[in-house]
Amino acid sequence: MADLQNGTDFYVLDQLDPAFPLAMGNKALAARTFRRVTTDPTLGIFELPSGEPACLDLSEMLNEQLDTSSLGDIETRIRRVCAFDPEIDSVAPTVTFADRKLKVRILITPADGSAPFALVLSVDAVTAQVLNDAELG
Q1: d(CA 106, CA 109)
Q2: CA distances (Å), origin 109, targets 89, 92, 118, 121, 132
Q3: What is the 8-class DSSP label of residue 11?
Q4: Exposure b/e, 87-111, CB count within 10 A at least 16 = b
C-alpha cells in the first residue's frame, strides 16, 4: 500500500522532469519544502490570504551582501516560511556559508507524528541542489 502520510505532490526539485513524477510521504514534504525556500516571493505562488509571501529565495539572498552574521536571520526566515505548511510540525534549519555557497540542512518534523528527516541543500547565486535526494525515501 502506498505511503499517504504527508500528502502526495509532484516530485520537482532542482531539475524539471518532464514526466512529473509523483511523490508521497517524506519525499512529498521535502519537495514542497524545497520549493518554499527556493521560490521568488514576488511571484505570489506561496502567498497568505493577507498577501504576505510564504516563501523565500535562498539563491537571491546570495546576490545581497551576505556574510556569516546573516546566517541566523536566514535560519529564522526558513522556520517562518515552513510554518505555513500544515503538514510540518516544526523545522530546525542549520545554514553555513563558504565559497559564496550556502549549505542548508533542514530537519523537518512532520505533523503526522512520523520520524523527523533532513533535507540538505547546496545553494549558489543561480541554483539550489538537493544533496540527499536518495535518502528521502
Answers
A1: 10
A2: 5, 8, 9, 17, 17
A3: -
A4: bbeebebebebeeebbebebebebe
pLDDT in tens, 67-114: 778 899 999 999 999 988 899 999 999 999 988 899 999 999 999 999
Give me 16's grid cell.
524539471
Task: Report the C-alpha gap between 110 and 24 in whole angstroms.
Answer: 13
Cα dist from 30 to 24, 91, 132, whole Å: 10, 11, 10
CA–CA dist 56, 11 (Å, integer):
19
pTM, entire model: 0.82
pLDDT 10s digits, 29-74: 888 899 899 988 887 777 777 777 888 999 888 877 777 788 999 9
Q: Give whole-number Cα distances, 12 to 20, 28, 35, 102, in Å.
A: 7, 9, 8, 20
Residues making up the chain, counted from first to last? 137
Name 115's Cβ contacts closer than 8 Å, sequence gap at least 6.
none
- Name every residue whose Cβ is closer than 8 Å to that of residue 127 and which is 6 or more positions away in sequence: 14, 59
